[in-house]
Amino acid sequence: QVTYLGKVSTTGMQFLSGCTEKPVIELWKKHTLAREDVYPANALLEIRPFQVWLHHLDLKGEATVHMDTFQVARIAYCTADHNVSPNIFAWVYREINDDLSYQMDCHAVECESKLEAKKLAHAMMEAFKKTFHSMKSDGRIHRNSSSEEVSHEFESDDG
């Protein structure tokens, strides 16, 4: 269980260590201004090959019908190493708009501990590896592109 901090659009095409710091600080500030003394987990993050599910929870901690789905192949970067809080796990996602243009959004969740945030980063990295391997063997990723370049671009940076 996590607390979903929200999303914010981010710019740039190269996602390197530290690229989520600014968006995470923005989301953290909004979160800390809005919260009361006790802010319970409001979501369940489930990372699987091909898809990541963010199940939103009601005030009783039960799953609602609302769920966000993220395609693993469209996640450009993820990390669990943030200065503002070591408990934050964030990922950059390529959102495709109705007109087929796209934007890069940084999503962030607060975990119960630094260890939990790092576990999510490792789970995301494993999900990407499985997704990438499957897409490569299915022929959806062509052999003429370097698998090292592509896989390096999507590596998890967990500090």
Automatic annotation (TrEMBL):
PROSITE patterns: PID. CDD domains: PTB_P-CLI1. Residues 138-159 are annotated as: Disordered. The keyword Cytoplasm applies. InterPro entries: PH-like_dom_sf, PID1, PID1_PTB, PTB/PI_dom. It is found in: Cytoplasm. Keywords: Cytoplasm, Phosphoprotein. Its main location: cytoplasm. One of its GO terms (cellular component) is cytoplasm. One of its GO terms (biological process) is regulation of cell population proliferation. It comes from the Eukaryota. Residues 72-132 form the PID domain. Found in a complex with PID1/PCLI1, LRP1 and CUBNI. Interacts with LRP1 and CUBN. Increases proliferation of preadipocytes without affecting adipocytic differentiation. PANTHER family: PTB-CONTAINING, CUBILIN AND LRP1-INTERACTING PROTEIN. This is PTB-containing, cubilin and LRP1-interacting protein.
